[in-house]
Amino acid sequence: MPGFATFTAKTTMRSESSEKMTGFDFVIIGAGSAGCVLANRLSANGKYRVLLLEAGRPDKNPWIHLPIGYAKTMHHPLDNWRFYTEPNANLKDRKIYMPRGRTLGGSSSINGLVYIRGQKADYDHWAQLGNEGWSWDSCLPYFRKLEHNDQGGSETRGSDGPVWASTVPAGDKLVDSFIAAGAANGVPVTHDFNSGDQEGVGYLQLSTKKGLRCSTAASYLKQARGRENLTVITGAHVTRIVFNGRKAEAVEFRREGRLDRVKASQEILLSAGAIQSPQILQLSGVGSGALLREHGVPAVHELVGVGENLQDHLQVRMMYEVGEPITINDDLNSLFGRARIGLEWLFRRTGPLALGINKGAMFCRALPEVNDTPDTQFHFAPLSAKSTAGKVDPFSGCTMSICQLRPESRGTVYIRSSDPLDPPRIQTNYLAAETDRRTTVAGMKFARRMSRTEPLAELLKREVTPGLQFQTDDELLDAARELATTIFHPVGTAKMGRPEDRFAVVDSRLRVHGMEGIRVIDCSIMPTLISGNTNVPAIMIAEKAADMILADTTKQKAIVEISTIKNAATKRAASGHTVVPSGGSNAEARQEHSQ
Fold it and tell me: What is each CA distance from 562 to 169, 371, 558, 559, 592, in whole angstroms?
């Protein structure tokens, strides 16, 4: 498509051969949502040499940059890891497909673009668990720092950050009817889901900029591409972190059929995501001793929490046939419609191709007698398909995807073997908790109530999925077991917590407990899942971490310099040489020496 060649060329980073890879201060594992942020911020002052390693290829696939194009990357064999969970007994022994980005930008290059922060209470809860500096008020400056909001700046919104928050244009008849139905059911209409309160129904904001995806590769890495102190290596599959005792010193990775090793003089920063960060730690000898012994991995440090605490949002997609030809299905099922929306994007950078699939959202309390804040999220799309990113239905259709915001079920991510090319075993344990089952059913019943509320009811002809044959709570739960899938928000597998929490993996500055020279910086550090889509929180975590790393590095360098000066002074004093204090005159030195 015209316009893509120039854009992708600008986002391609300088690479260097392994022979030149020496003298790095920081080595970042994973050029995803967090890794690209770190690469930009840590290289910005020019003081440090930074290496960014990415297993995937550059983000040259044009479908990455077209917002609706994630239907084309959802199963892409090169740009997606294409993981599957283990069979889940709570979902009728189904394996659930779990896509993860495998390109510059990571999952920010292939996700649904939804711009959500979560609730104020989510972050205040992190702080209450003992994670100093992670309350809403502490995180808000970083949310504002990363954000360019088309609604303008405010006490809660940012206006000049690299990641755009673009509001879906109003005026879609079907979305307007969804919003009106939400209001009729007691949910306030909102224009801002990200002020901390969250409860409301309205048009979404998306991570798009002028009709193109605003991934972290485009928004952060692109800015840094000309810096001589930043090196980006793609096609580099990290196999393990090398430790000297408990100090992380180097990273080993496979590239073009060979095994390379690169050292970091300051720190190794693990940003491979909630699935692969624990996998890399385990392959490196950090994790449960029993698991490491099972697979013959030499133990470096036992941390039983590595790979535990997996949380994810489970969605039930409730689909409806629409009585008027006003849906994206109608555009995509018509040659004229496809041509029209293609030309609209080409000449104006607007229309369905510039927006992605989901246009509206609702955060509500499906169980108001239990929860004071929203417990359920609706994604509303004027489109329907039998599977996420699948071929659209042949009729006019829409989807209300509902998910419980704060699941209590916990899963695991364990290595399958000592082979770093072997995908890990992912066990999500969806719907294991009674609260999760109850909230999911309540959310489905809320969707049914919406579908019967005017003006939405007038537009909906019939419920296609799951279908009205499912009526009782038990029947709806059975339908969820049959139909539910991930909405792609895995977190928590290297959780942040105090040292006395035996399942905590990192401290509040994201340093791995009991280790030196290594931090984990991605959604795996979340102690609990935030209430909503996780990409913007991942970027916030990296922004905050970058400031921590720079501050800690400066402090450590100052300590080393002071220690060096004191040692030198002691040696010179012992040998009878005059010591001149920094900033003092020779006369002052002689006077001090004579005294």
Answer: 57, 54, 6, 5, 20
In this structure, the answer to whether residues 442 and 479 fall within a common structural domain is yes
Domain assignment present for 63: yes
What domain count does the chain have?
2
Beta bridge partners of 148: 159, 164
Query: Which of 502, 168, 138, 151 shows the shortest CA–CA distance to 309?
Result: 502
Q: What are the beta bridge partners of residue 397?
A: 321
Q: What's the token pair of residue 557?
A: 């360098």
Strand positions, DSSP E, 220-368? 230-234, 237-244, 247-255, 258-270, 286-287, 301-302, 314-322, 360-364
Do 361 and 282 fall within a single domain?
no
Within this chain, do residues 255 and 272 fall inside the same structural domain, yes or no?
Answer: yes
* DSSP annotation string for 356-416: -S--EEEEE-SSTTT-SS--EEEEEES--BSSTTSPBPSS-EEEEEEEESS----BEEE-S
Phi-psi region for residue 95, left (φ > 0), alpha (ψ -120 to 50) or beta?
beta
Reduced to 3 states (helix: H, G, I; strand: E, B; else coil), residue 326 is coil
Q: Determine the longest span between alpha carbons in the chain, in angstroms.
A: 99
Provide the sign of the torsion angle of the four alpha carbons 438, 439, 440, 442, taken in this order: positive
Residue type for position 474: D
Q: Give the distance from CA 113 to its chain's centroid.
A: 11
Domain, as residue range, for 445 = 169-203+314-404+431-483
Catalytic residue among 148, 489, 577, 593: 489
Position 588 in a domain: no
**pTM, two decimal places:** 0.92
518 belongs to a structural domain: yes
Residues 9 and 120 in one domain: yes
Same domain assignment for residues 306 and 318 = no
In a shared domain, residues 397 and 415? no
Whether 260 and 378 map to the same domain: the answer is no
Residue range 186-224, pLDDT digits in tens: 999 999 999 999 999 999 999 999 999 999 999 999 999
What CATH number has the domain bearing residue 414?
A: 3.50.50.60
**Residue 24: which of 161, 228, 196 has the closest Cα?**
228
DSSP element (H, E) containing 206: strand 205-206
DSSP string, 137-161: HHHHHHHHHHEEETT---SS--BSS
Where residue 586 falls among pLDDT bands split at 50, 70, 90? very low
pLDDT digits (tens, 9 = 90+) for 544-561: 999 999 999 988 877 766
For 426-461, letters b (16+ CB in 10 Å) and e give bbbbbbbbeebbbbbbbbbebbbebbebeebeebbe
Q: Which amino acid is at 536?
A: V
pLDDT for 9 beyond 70: no
Q: Is cis: bond before 141, omega within 30 of 0?
A: no
Q: Is 513 a catalytic residue?
A: no
Question: 71 with 359: CB under 8 angstroms?
Answer: no
Give the end of a domain, one of 458, 483, 508.
483
Q: Is residue 255 part of a domain?
A: yes
* Averaged pLDDT score across all residues of the chain: 92
- Kindly report the backbone phi and psi dihedral angles of residue 165, in degrees, each rounded to the nearest multiple of 5, phi listed first: -110, 100
- Look at residues 107, 21, 20, 128 and name the one whose alpha carbon lies nearest to residue 64: 107
Rounded Cα–Cα distance for residues 473 and 145 (Å): 44
Beta strands 360-364 and 376-381, pairing class: antiparallel
